[in-house]
Prior knowledge:
Family: Belongs to the cation transport ATPase (P-type) (TC 3.A.3) family. Type IB subfamily.
GO molecular function: ATP binding; ATP hydrolysis activity; ATPase-coupled monoatomic cation transmembrane transporter activity; metal ion binding
Radius of gyration: 32 Å
Number of domains: 4
Transmembrane segments: 27-46, 254-272, 284-308, 597-614, 620-641
Structural class: alpha+beta
Subcellular location: Cell membrane
Distance between the termini: 42 Å
Region (Disordered): 404-450
Bound molecules: adenosine-5'-diphosphate, magnesium ion
Amino acid sequence: xxxxxxxxxxxxxxxxxxxxxxxxxxxxxxxxxxxxxxxxxxxxxxxxxxxxxxxxxxxxxxxxxxxxxxxxxxxxxxxxxxxxxxxxxxxxxxxxxxxxxxxxxxxxxxxxxxxxxxxxxxxxxxxxxxxxxxxxxxxxxxxxxxxxxxxxxxxxxxxxxxxxxxxxxxxxxxxxxxxxxxxxxxxxxxxxxxxxxxxxxxxxxxxxxxxxxxxxxxxxxxxxxxxxxxxxxxxxxxxxxxxxxxxxxxxxxxxxxxxxxxxxxxxxxxxxxxxxxxxxxxxxxxxxxxxxxxxxxxxxxxxxxxxxxxxxxxxxxxxxxxxxxxxxxxxxxxxxxxxxxxxxxxxxxxxxxxxxxxxxxxxxxxxxxxxxxxxxxxxxxxxxxxxxxxxxxxxxxxxxxxxxxxxxxxxxxxxxxxxxxxxxxxxxxxxxxxxxxxxxxxxxxxxxxxxxxxxxxxxxxxxxxxxxxxxxxxxxxxxxxxxxxxxxxxxxxxxxxxxxxxxxxxxxxxxxxxxxxxxxxxxxxxxxxxxxxxxxxxxxxxxxxxxxxxxxxxxxxxxxxxxxxxxxxxxxxxxxxxxxxxxxxxxxxxxxxxxxxxxxxxxxxxxxxxxxxxxxxxxxxxxxxxxxxxxxxxxxxxxxxxxxxxxxxxx
Length: 651
Ligand code: ADP
Ligand code: MG
């Protein structure tokens, strides 16, 4: 059970954005503090007596200060020094030496920046939570030809639902009947609707137009892709970036350092003959401007806003750390089948019925796209697909099994799966060129598809029974995406595939990829990645299959195409939908997030150093110190929010 299962079926309609700020308790307390400050300050200005402005400013201190004070004391009990507490102490200290208005100003600005911070977090969360609102609450279920209205969460796997034009799909499923243009932008960010007809997968929360669909439910509501997206992004929000972990490690010691320095700045001048008020004021100002509030806020808001932004485009980034690393990627390794190709291959040519039936019997157990193509081809021809025993798969090589007492292997041409005697070399019968030619019969020649050859071998005799040609379309935007990636990386994109060199080469030429590594086993793909990393590169691997899992794990950033459960678990980034051009876009986003983090750290650090120097060397007015310190905190927090939008797509 996931936490998502507890969510109400129909999430409350989202309130308009304007009121988001007002709904935050932090904002209401800050508002009260601000109002009290305005009234109290005015009374002071017009020369009203203490008994008039005193209580008003006391309200200001209480409204703005009680929460950070409580939090700070709680932290102190756990032997942690909270910077918020320093702010409250500084304000009280200022009041103690008669700077009551300055202290109140500190409280007000501090409370306001706290409210803005809470707002920034809520904004990021809302843009994630918005995803969940997309799945409709109700569904039209078909039972024995009759329609019944049910709640979407009641749907179970195997139910059949009707989706009318304009309706949102209520659950992940497969189209049984009908055709429609489906707007998947809510999940994949793809702006154009995609045609969906019988056999196609549709996702909860996408919207059908131009036709009705009958859909068989494939996943319960709690496990739908849209629910997983929200879950993953929420998980990401609970992670911390490396920079943040470093800052938090240093923060404690730094804060204690600030307290020690404050005491020194107070006592030393006092001993040397300064007045109590002067010494205290300078020390309080120091404590405020030296506090690391802005530094603490420099890192996570931009990274998490970027994670939410990517999530809305169907790019699920697992953690803030991954977003940080994405900004440093300078080498990309692409898998071929299912990554730059559509991953919906079909058997072409005219293979022998018996060979096809044997192959299909073994492949029926395979999850590989090639396997599904073989099974589909056999079914299309109405062949009987026999039972298979002793099935096993070797990722990146092929599959084998016993069909009707015969050991059969289906796999890479010329290198069938090894079995038994490792020295037994397969013998090819007949003219291999004649079988090769199958894949290029005129009817099947499609300039935008890649053809893979797969041998069907009798493992008992080592005889190749036949060769199947299987063609897969190139993703339409693959060449553009490769060019965009090349423009953003130091190492030109690498195509790494388990397929044969000649097939891979032809495809790479069409994509504009010069560096092709073919005939790779899963562990060879890892070596490709390790080689690039050894040269000091930050490597992203994009893959789709089980055979890519080791390389995905070995990469700095592993990106999986598709929402399969296995890849969702293994990868750092899950890419939903087909639009490959979001990959360069994601690199841009990561880079922008990284640049924003650095800019934030520089701004925050510079302002701290500047104000501290001013306070120690000259006379920094308390109000100015407060404004500078809190101003930089707010600036940094808002700067991070910019990552909720853009960057523009590569063009
Ligand atoms: P890629 O690296 O291009 O995604 P894979 O590593 O998944 O390709 O597969 C490499 C090669 O191994 C394929 O081109 C195919 O020849 C063979 N192969 C792998 N799995 C299967 C299978 N289930 N059926 C037939 N051939 C397979
Ligand atoms: Mg693949």
